[in-house]
Amino acid sequence: MIFTIAGKELKAFGYLKRIDDFMQVQPQLIQMPNPPGITELIAAPIYATTAIIFLFAIPLLAMRLIAEERRNQTLVLLLSAPISMTEIALGKFVGLVAFLWLIIALATLMPVSLLLGGRLDFGLLASLVAGVALLAACFSAVALYASALTAHPFVASIIAFGLLLGMLLAGETAADGLRARGWAVPAELAQVLSPLKNFESFAKGMLDSYNVVCMLLLIAVFLILTIRRLDAARLGG
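Now predict its structure.
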């Protein structure tokens, strides 16, 4: 009886629940001319959920990267080492992103396991992986900058989440307002501030170069801000 209850609860979790739902609607899908497959109905929601989780988790993962060094008074030693501020910032950034990409790789094993009973749209799957990987890098760059602003890791996490949420709201609002005035180019530029908006094209299986450039530009801007903040800390002693 224990295992029966445990099995029921296990099936209630998102991934297994989606597989069960897909099996139930499969007879209806067969009758459709161009039915969505397992990649759209099961795999894609995994990455959409991962993107939302990263929005909350990355500020917590990144909060100690620089703030804890400052709190423990080891930042002075790091800044006085014979390495550049760029190397410090990139080292912190790459370490966090590598960890997040490992999580994405492990999450990808779930949709890949569906090959045992069906076929995957590898184009869409590759687009989803690339999109969430870039999104993780965007969030990490913003959170790293927030960690450079304070000596308190928890405060850094609040700043990072506030920046990400503010960028999401501001980017959407600014873009809509500019489009309403007929300013198409400024509206497109405002989209740089909304990494989740840029992720939407990846979720549809479209590797849009504009969205890629927007996300890379956002990463570059916040890494430069982090480097400048570290330079200021070094000059200020």
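The chain has two domains: 1-31, 42-236.
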